[in-house]
């Protein structure tokens, strides 16, 4: 029973890896613990979004990932 955490963009560089598998179920506090302090600090920023099972969460602190889910950490997108 596992959840896959995907690190995208600059969050991948901070994490030092592209993906991480953790025990399911996974909630917000478990996510912060799993990703380490540097990534957790960035996740606290309002502009960083979290998607679970392909859907961006309106309130990322209500994360409730189940076995087989992918949790994508989405950094802010810049553009013009």
TrEMBL record:
It comes from the Bacteria. SUPFAM superfamilies: MoaD/ThiS. It holds the Pfam family ThiS. This is MoaD/ThiS family protein. It comes from Qipengyuania profundimaris.
């Amino acid at each position: 029973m596992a959840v896959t955490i995907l690190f995208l963009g600059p969050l991948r560089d901070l994490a030092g890896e592209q993906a991480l598998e953790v025990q399911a179920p996974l909630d917000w506090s478990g996510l912060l613990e799993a990703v380490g302090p540097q990534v957790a600090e960035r996740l606290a920023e309002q502009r960083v979004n979290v998607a679970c099972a392909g859907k961006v969460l309106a309130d990322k602190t209500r994360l409730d990932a189940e076995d087989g889910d992918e949790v994508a950490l989405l950094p802010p997108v810049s553009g013009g």
